[in-house]
Amino acid sequence: MQLVELIEQAVAGLGYELVDFETSPRARLLRVFIDRLPEQGNIEIDDCTAVSNHLSRLFTVENVDYDRLEVSSPGLDRPLKKAADWQRFAGQDVQVKLRVPIGNQRNFAGRIVGMRGVSAVVAVDGEEREFSLEGIEKARLVPRF
């Protein structure tokens, strides 16, 4: 089982969602970003502590070699990775960076409309644009204050 799958399964078993997972070049640092399901509120420090303790024990059992584990919330500028994210955050502002430019533009800002098939739909300057999820290098929510 891949490390990300192991983490995703463990986090889901605790009632959380794995938002993102990062490693340092030689997997010495593991960063895990978790969130609650929409109806369950926000992530708190106790949630991060519970997940960190569980993953530490799991990594010992599974012989995962690492130096440091960090567990945190995804933050207000949460990354959007899965199709479900685009549905969940419809109506929110987003910043999108594409892998390959459309014309001469790789960066787009707009409001999330949702999903159409395998494409994220974003209203950019009043016009709906479709971006294939595979073509998106990075997408993050833009917090409103």
Q: Helices and strands in order, then pairings?
A:
Layout: H1 3-13, E1 17-23, E2 29-35, H2 45-61, E3 68-72, H3 83-88, E4 93-102, E5 105-116, E6 119-124, E7 127-132, E8 136-141
Structural notes for this entry:
With 145 residues, this protein is of the alpha+beta class. The chain folds into two domains: 3-72, 2-Layer Sandwich (GMP Synthetase, Chain A, domain 3); 83-141, Roll (SH3 type barrels). It has helices spanning 3-13, 45-61, 83-88, and strands spanning 17-23, 29-35, 68-72, 93-102, 105-116, 119-124, 127-132, 136-141. The strands form two sheets. It has a five-stranded antiparallel sheet with strand order 7-6-5-4-8. The protein starts with a helix and ends with a strand. The mean pLDDT is 93.
In short:
The chain is built from three helices and eight strands; from the N terminus they run αββαβαβββββ. It has 145 residues and is α+β, with helices and mostly antiparallel strands.
